[in-house]
Structure formats: C-alpha cells, structure tokens
Amino acid sequence: MASDGPSAMPPSTTLPFKSAYERYVDTVSEITSLNIQLAMLETCSHTKLGEFARPFSVRFGCKTTGGGSHPPVAHLTPRTVSIDHLYDDNGVNLYERFLRSHMRLVAVTKLAFGPTSVECIGAELALAESYMRAGLWKQCHDHARVAEDILNEDDGVLNSLSPGGSSPLKSPSSMVKGHASRTTDAQLHHARALFSKMGAAAGLFGSMYDRYLHTQDASFQSYLRHLERTMQPEVLAALTTAFQSVQTSLDEINTTSHLVSSGSISDVLLTHNSADVQRIGHYVKSPPTAQGALQITWPELVEAASRATTNAARAGMQCKTLLLHGRYHMKRGQVDDAILWLRRAVAGQVVVVGRDNHDMVDYFVAMADALCLKHTQSLQVAKDAHDQSFDKWCLSEEGVAACRNEALHILEDIHQSSRAKSFMQKQKTIKLPSKKEVEALARQNLRDHHQHGGVGSNSHPATSISAFLDEATELYVHVWTLEEQHYGRQDANTAIAYAGLGNVYILRNEPNEAVGYYTKAIDTFEAACDGAVPASAFLRMHLAKVHMYLQRKVDAMTLLHEAATFFKSHASQFLDSETTRRDAAANAIDAWRGWLQLANGDAHVDTPSIYRNMAEAAEIGYGEFSVEAADAMVAEGHYLLNVGNTDKGEEALTAASYIMEIHYGIHDKRVRKLRQEVVSVGAKRKQGEPSS
C-alpha cells in the first residue's frame, strides 16, 4: 500500500545533542527539584505513612489520577500534598526517581569531570545518602566505601584539615606542582590535549611559559576560564582585586607587574572577611627562599585557588564518608564502632567549617543519637549485671533464707486478708496460692528491693551512664540553636530539633521538661505548615503517653482525640492511595482505642462519637465491607447495647455479621456466635426486656 511507504511515515525528530556537562547540569537541576519535594515530605513525616514508609515494596495497580503534568514545586506545601506529588505518570514514587537521578548523576559526572574528580566523589556520596534516605543501608555503605577509596587514592590531599594550616605544596620554589599534577587537573577540565603535548617539556612549566600560554594559547585560556567558572563569584572577585592591587603597587616602583610576591598577595587575601578567601591566602603563603620572595603569576594564582578549594572540598567529603560509616554501624547496632566513626567525623567537620556552622547539624544529630543509644545500651548492660548479681545472691545461704522469710510473710498476709474477707462476706475461705506462686512472688519482691539498693545490691554505674546523656543534651541544644538561627523559629526543622530535645529529656527521666519541648515542637510544626501534619499528629500520640505516665488522663485523652481526628481526615484525602489511606486509618483507630482505655468504661459524653468515628475510620481505610470495619461495628454495637440503645446496637451487630459472613462463610464459629447475639437482642427487644 502506498500509505505504508516511507513517504507516509512521520518526519523523524532529531534529538538535540547535549554534552556530558550539559547533561550534568540538567541532572543536578532535576535532583534539586526532587530534593525540595522529598525534604518537605520527610520533615513533615509524610514518609511514615503508606507507600513512602515502604519505598521499594511490591505495589499492585499504583496509578496516578489526574493529568500528566507534574505539580510545580513552588506551590508544594504540606496542606496541598496529593497523590500526584508522590508518583509520576508511570507510578514511580519520589524515592525511586530520586535514586535514579543520582545514579545518572554518577555516570555523567565521570564523563564530564573524570572518575577521580571532586565532582565524582560528591556524586558517589550523594548517591550513598539517597540510599540512606530510602532505607537501603547496605547500598549506602557500599557507595560510601567507593567514595572513600577514591579519596584515599590521592595521597597527601588531607594532610591538614585546617583552613589555616600550612601550605601542602611540596616545594616552596614553585607554585606549580609539576607536569603530573597539572595533567591530572587537565583531565578534569578538558585540557587533556594541551598538556599531553608538554610531557617532554615539564621543566618549562615556569612563570615565563605560563605567561606565554596565558596570552597566546586558546586551550590554556579555556582551561583558566573553566577554573575561574568553578570558583564562587565573590572569591574570584577577591582574587582579581588582590592581584590588581599588588600589580598597581609594583608598577609604581617599576618592576615586572606580571609577577607578584606570594607573600604580598597572601597578606591581602588574609585581610578579607571570607573564610574561603582566607583559605586561599594561607595556601599561597610561602616562606622566602635564598633567591628572595616567591614570585607567582595570575594563572598560578588561579590554579592555587582551585586546588585550595578542591582540598577543602575533599576534606569535607572525607568527613561525610565518616558520617555515613557511623550511621551504618549505628543502624547495625554496633554502637561503639559508630561512636568512634562519628567522633572522627565531627572533629574533622568542626575543623573544616567551624562548630557554629549550620553544616554541623547532621553531624551533631548523628552523634547525639549514637550517645542516646549508648546510654540505653549501658542501662541494659547494667540491668543484666544487676540481675546476675541478684541471682547469684539468691543461691547463697543468705538469699535462700531471705526468700523463705519473704514467702512466709506473703502467706501470712494472704491468710489474714482471706480470713477478713470471709468473715465480712460470710463466704468460704479463699484458696491459698501454690508454693511455686508464693516463691515467685517472694523473689520478685526481693528483686524490686534489690534494684532500689537493698540487700546484695551493687553500686549502680550512674555516673558513667549520665555522661552520655549530658553530651547528647548539649549537642541537641546546639542543634536547636543552629536550626533556629538558620531557618527561624517557625520552621519544620526547628520543630524537629525541639522533638529531639524532648526525646533526650525522656531518657533523662525528666518528663515535665520533655512535655514542654514536645508541645513546642507541635506548635512549631503547625505554625510552619499552616495546620496539622503527620509529624504533629505522631508527636501528639507520643506526648499522650508521657501524660499517661504523669497521671494526666484528661490531657492524654485530648491529645489522642486530636491525633485520631487528623489521621481520619488524612486518610479521607488519600482515597486513591491504598497504603497511605490504610496506615492513616490504622493510626486513627489506635489513637481512639487508647482514648477508650483511658476512659475505662466511665460515662463520657464523647464515647458514642468515638465508637462511631472508629467505625468510619475503618470504612475509609479498609473498605466498607472489610473485616476491620466489621470489628469496629461489633465494638460499637456492644457499647450501644450496654448503654441501652437496643435498636442501633442491633443494627450495628447485624451489619457486622453480614460482613463477616461474606469473609468467613455462614458456618464459621465467629459468624454463628455473632448471629446468635443478634437473634438474642432481637428477641429481647420484641419482648420489651432490657438488652443487658
């Protein structure tokens, strides 16, 4: 057919060619966009519900609803999160897209900058961190080790982490390391062909040859322009101003202005208020030689600045690898190893950026978490040692005698109380417990007395254990200070810092202080996110447990009801995401069950609505004809029957029996028992008898 010929085919569209560097820029832009969305979801705890709590689990029929365009990042706020923000058109969630982008970044970085470049190391570390955020710790550890191996290939790069340390140049006679070093730099900046031709003339890499290349050779000029582009604009401007000022002073005394003294340029750079510029000033500073002060050119100054920046970046990346190693060991439960790694990471990063820099937050948080874990582990070790000493004491003659005496006291108390009850109520004497039961109760009483410093107890190592919590508390206070200075008071990151402080004070057994910090965290979350978010709801449930410990039942019930109401509303907003809807509904049901346990059968005005809300949450999360909905209806029906509302109670039990019959069949024991209840209630209602 003529229509099937080549002339009928649509014209092919040729994809525009993009260099490796252009693809690198596009990938970085995509990662930045995804990171903004993912960071918001993580800070507000959206990732603890549904698919994001299991980012790589098997999904069935995950399809997005709505149009094919992605929602704009600028309008992504916690109150407008929808299914379109969580998945793309193919059902791939943000974590997978984030990981794929980082995998692509590693590949294009090797093409654009070289396999041993700083950019490649940074891409490997970014991929490792993305694996960590997705919960894939083994892959995170593998890529962190790859980055560490690349860093360790360049010997002497991290001779000094200090920005003000001595210059790492091997010889003060030249600011150029030599042909081999410059060839390596060239491989990273697309000047490979130029410097490979100069292999036979490595000795000519002096100031004169640099001057000639700077003015005559286009490849060398392109190489320098690329170095200048890699610098921060304010750093390059400071270098230019410093070099020109020294040149001007040299012109006045009629010397060669293309050469400047390294000491003079260093003095000018060290007076700058930027730490990056001061780092370059320390780098180019060189002691005078027998031939006088070291003279450098503008190309040499640019190269020195680039290497100083590269060395600082490598130092920071080395600290990042230590941080990832520490988190990996902490995840595996190797707390002592984790603390060793993290202490090295914190010490190195403090030297690189300073203790009061916001980049220290991740390091301080990891260190504080490890110390809290070490405290908990130490408490458990002390408790185990305490129990072993008690068991050993019980086997001694003193322990056996104490157990016998305690058992006799228990039997006497039980006998006297049973006689008093039988006399008052004119009943038969209550049966005494068995010998084994009395011995077990006696041992438990002695164990409790032993733990509080009684007989046979050893000194509790409270001093060594509290040191971990003291350091963790100090770190979390510093983290809160840094977050507030960087983001402000009404930000989700500041709220996370408040929650961390609350967790530390729980471990310190200071619940009143913890309540204050948890309350501040909830208020900050809701102020930052313009309303309740999963993070604030989870904190409410956690804070309710603290109020229960403090015997504040009313406050705990209020918090649980608020959290459950939010989760029910949240589940209704994610009707097109099965896992998110179910997880949110399950949290709502758990919170309301806690509310009912605290009510403990008391006549409360909100109890009927609580049972109804539980049934509605089960229907939203699991479906109208689900087993969970049937269980909620059974609980509601029993409550209504107990309070005398026979009609609605019978209606709820009838609906529940119908649903359970669908799932289990008519001959199932549970179905028959429930149907018997329904028949009994109906018969009593017809006879006019109370349902109780």
Automatic annotation (TrEMBL):
TPR repeats lie at residues 495-528. Keywords: TPR repeat. Residues 161-182 are annotated as: Disordered. Residues 161-174 have a biased composition (Low complexity). Gene3D superfamilies: Tetratricopeptide repeat domain (1.25.40.10). The keyword Hydrolase does not apply. The keyword Secreted does not apply. This is Uncharacterized protein. The lineage of its organism: Eukaryota, Sar, Stramenopiles, Oomycota, Saprolegniomycetes.
